[in-house]
Structure formats: C-alpha cells, structure tokens
Amino acid sequence: MFTGLSSFPLTPMAHDAVDEPSFIRIMARLAASGTDSITALGSTGSYAYLTGAERARVTRLAVEHADDTPVFIGVSALRTSQVLVNIKEAERAGAAAVLVAPMTYQALTPDDVFELYRTVTEHTELPVIVYDNPGTTHFTFTGELYERIAQLRGIASIKIPGVPADPAKAQEHVQAIRAVVPEHVTIGVSGDAFAAIGLNAGCDAWYSVVGGTLPRLALGIARPAQEGRADAATAESQRLAPLWNLFTEFGGSLRVVAAIAEHLGLAQHKSLPLPIQGLTGSQRARVAEVVHALDLAE
C-alpha cells in the first residue's frame, strides 16, 4: 500500500465548520482517479485546526467514500493521549494505516519523538507512516532518528521532505536513508515540485498535496516514474513549473491548492480554517491564469 501516489485531500470548511458535501465530492473524485491511496487529515487536510469530533467525522467520511482505495488517516496531536484517541477512531472507521507527525508547541527532542512513535506502535496494529514535515512541525529528523524509529514494529513508511534538486545528490540522499531503514519500510517523497526527482532517485511513494485536488495531474508524474520513464516524469514536472512557482511565491502549497479547489467548484470560497485567510483576489486571479494556461481542470 505504501508505494505509488498517495493523494492528500483538503478538508474544506464553510462557516467555521467542516463542509461535508464538498469533502465527499473531493473523496469521490479521488476514489475514481486511480490514485494508489488517499491520506486524509494530513497537513493539507488541516488536521491541527479541527476538534476531536470533527476529526472523527472526517475519518469516517473518508473511509466511507473511498471505495476500494486504501485510506491513511493523519492522527497527529500535541499530546500522545490525544494521538491514541485519534488512532482508535481510525481503527473503528476501517482505515488502512495512520500518519503520525511530531506536533510541537514546546520544542521536542529526538527522544521525545522516538517515544511518541514507540507508544503509537505499541497501541495499534495499523501500519504507521512517519511524517517528517519540518516546515510545518518545526522538528527536523536525522538519519539516526529515522533508523531508530524504523526498527519499531509497525513502521511501514517514512514521508521525507523534498529531495535536493540535483538528481545525483537526490539519489545519494535517498540511498543514505535506504541504508539505515529496513527494506520493508518504504520511502515517500513530499514537496510536489521535487516529486519527479525523488521518484526517479529511488523513492517508493509520493505523498502529494496537489494529488488531493488534481489527482490525474499527479498521476501524470507518478506513473511514468514508476514505469522507469524518468525523462517523461521529469518533463511533466517541468511543464508544471508555473504551478510550483506559485507554491513558492504564495508561501506554500495549501493556500494555492485551496484556491484551485475553489476555482474548480470543488470547495466553497474561503475553504480554509480561520485564521488562515487564503489568497487575495489578485493572487486568486494568478492561480486561475495558471489553471487555464496549464489546462489543469480535470
């Protein structure tokens, strides 16, 4: 389950509540797309802004509307006890795996993070994906910590940040991680602009922001890379450079992907949880231009 494209959908909001009809619409779109898995309640799914009840509801909706596509559920929280509660909800809903990031307010140490994953793996039979996202969590994993955590029973995959832009250096980076984790633990790249480079460098999976809203676009990179057609995957990623540039210009992928979903009618206007305001009118116009120019509407 932990190879290929894993699509991270938005959890759209409306009037300070989860917009369930829009979420169901997004899930149905993903289920029909051919994506290899769906990861709900990741950072793109704004898990940190939701109440426990909202998260439990989204978890159930995700599994119910995914058809036969495996669903991974983000269960991260500031307190370990809350993580375990979220895991139980994922288990009850029928999730295929859980995604765990080390959420922080006070800075965490490597031992703090190791104990988090040790506790999680001792309390669930579900496979666990390690979520390394320093731009959001402000915690940076080391190779040594990857190695320690990957030895725990139940660790199935590690989602790494974007790889170096140079293909040779990217390959060295992925090989260094592969050398310290067991063979059964897959390595998944994130940072959509680096997906083709990461997959071509030996990553097993792509944990994709854009795949949650534009899954066929993401598959246009993932499938060639999986089939060994590195040049085709690279060419498609380069074609999408205007989109990746928006991610950089507008401070990350979340606001841009939300604007795309709203532009395509998949979510209502201002679909992000407050206090996140989303893009301005002029920025939204730029996004719409790129959607049109790259023919991104699916």
Total count of domains: 1
* Main β sheet profile: 8 strands, parallel, barrel
**How many β-strands, per DSSP?**
10
Q: In the CATH scheme, what's the topology name? A: TIM Barrel
Question: Structural class from helices and strands?
Answer: alpha/beta
| Mean pLDDT across residues | 97
Report the order of strands and helices. Answer: EEEHEHEHEHEHHEHEHEHHHHH
Instruction: Provide a count of the helices.
Output: 13
Runs in which pLDDT lies below 50 for 5 or more consecutive residues are none
Strand content: 5-15%
CATH homology-level superfamily: Aldolase class I
State the distance separating the first and last CA atoms.
25 Å
Report helical residue fraction. 40-55%
Name the shape in a single word: globular
> What value does the Rg take, in angstroms?
18 Å
CATH architecture: Alpha-Beta Barrel
Write the layout of secondary structure elements.
Blueprint: E1 4-7, E2 13-14, E3 17-18, H1 20-31, E4 37-40, H2 52-64, E5 71-74, H3 80-93, E6 97-100, H4 110-122, E7 128-131, H5 134-137, H6 143-150, E8 155-160, H7 167-178, E9 186-189, H8 195-200, E10 205-208, H9 215-226, H10 230-239, H11 241-249, H12 253-263, H13 281-293
Parallel strand pairs: 1-4, 1-10, 4-5, 5-6, 6-7, 7-8, 8-9, 9-10
Antiparallel strand pairs: 2-3
What would your notes on this structure say?
This protein has 298 residues and is of the alpha/beta class. It has a single domain (4-227), classed as Aldolase class I (TIM Barrel, Alpha-Beta Barrel), CATH 3.20.20. The protein has helices at residues 20-31, 52-64, 80-93, 110-122, 134-137, 143-150, 167-178, 195-200, 215-226, 230-239, 241-249, 253-263, 281-293; strands at residues 4-7, 13-14, 17-18, 37-40, 71-74, 97-100, 128-131, 155-160, 186-189, 205-208. The strands form two sheets. Strands 1-4-5-6-7-8-9-10 form an eight-stranded parallel beta barrel, surrounded by seven helices. A two-stranded antiparallel sheet has the order 2-3. Helix 3 links the parallel strand 5 (71-74) and strand 6. The model has no long low-confidence stretch (mean pLDDT 97).
